[in-house]
Amino acid sequence: MAKKIAISIPKGGVGKTTTAVNLAAGFAIAEKRTLLIDFDPAGACALSLGFNEANMHGDIFQVFSFTKFIDAVVHKTKLPYLDFIPCQINTYDLEERINRLSRNIYLFSNVLDQQALTEYDFIIIDCPPYMKGLTTVALAAVDSVLIPLRSGQFSVAALKKMFNQIEWVKTTINSELKIEGILLNMYEPRTKAWALTIKSLNKHFKEYLFKSVIPKSIAISEAEFYGKPSMLFDVKSKGAIAYLNLTAEILNKNAVPNIYRLTEADYIQQANK
Ligand code: ATP
Ligand code: MG
């Protein structure tokens, strides 16, 4: 049975998509069969994995609207253990339809329970930067939520909102929902903004903070232009190493055996594909 993790916080630009893509790649590199599902109508995961209109053949919402079976919309990626389901909402009409469909709170749980998905070890879901609709549908269906955060007072405010929503989901729809952890992203040591953010987080959220933090890294932002997770772009970069550390931390926390077998030469070969 796959462990299902939603990447979510009601705040834009904090690194949800970046974390979804790089964590999914990290699990795949650790040879865990992983499925990344883009649940954000913005559809950014596809770009980060090198997909475009021409090489995609269906998306998650065709499954929702019963026009395709789930196996027909699973895309293979450059990493043998990583599969991907995109989100291709490119008209207002479609977005409206999705919003209507997402009123059925159990829709996604039913989709994730399908036989075709039992082969995965991890399913990662990249959520949009708002709580209503799709995010609630995702939270109803997953085992845990990973919350990325950047520095700033607004981020801490969004975190409080996120925790309120998690409580609501737990009491109304999914009592088993857990918090996988809070991830500090675009971390810059010795900056006042981060010192203040951490001081504020330590008051209420200390127990949820991952030990791994993701530094602000040029390789992370550049990698997406090349349609690659950071490990396939520059495995020695601080960003790639940080995401591999996060992967290991989550595997250890969940008591999943963790054997990295790929060598650096393998990464380079994958990156050049
Ligand atoms: P949205 O809410 O709009 O979906 P998001 O939370 O998914 O945004 P991302 O798209 O992952 O955020 O990241 C926003 C931008 O920040 C991207 O251009 C990404 O490359 C950059 N970014 C994310 N994490 C890092 C990092 N650790 N170092 C440098 N740049 C980063
Ligand atoms: Mg995003």
Number of domains: 1
Low-confidence stretches at least 5 residues in length (pLDDT < 50)? none
CATH topology (fold) name: Rossmann fold
Instruction: Determine the structural class based on helices, strands and strand pairing.
Output: alpha/beta
Relative helix content: 40-55%
Task: Report on the biggest sheet.
Answer: 8 strands, mixed
CATH architecture: 3-Layer(aba) Sandwich
How many E strands? 8
Q: What Rg, in angstroms, do the CA atoms define?
A: 18 Å
| Percentage of residues in strands | 5-15%
Mean pLDDT: 91
Distinct bound molecules: adenosine-5'-triphosphate, magnesium ion
CATH class: Alpha Beta
Outline type? globular
> Please, what is the oligomeric state?
single chain
Separate helix tally: 12
**CATH homologous superfamily identity:** P-loop containing nucleotide triphosphate hydrolases
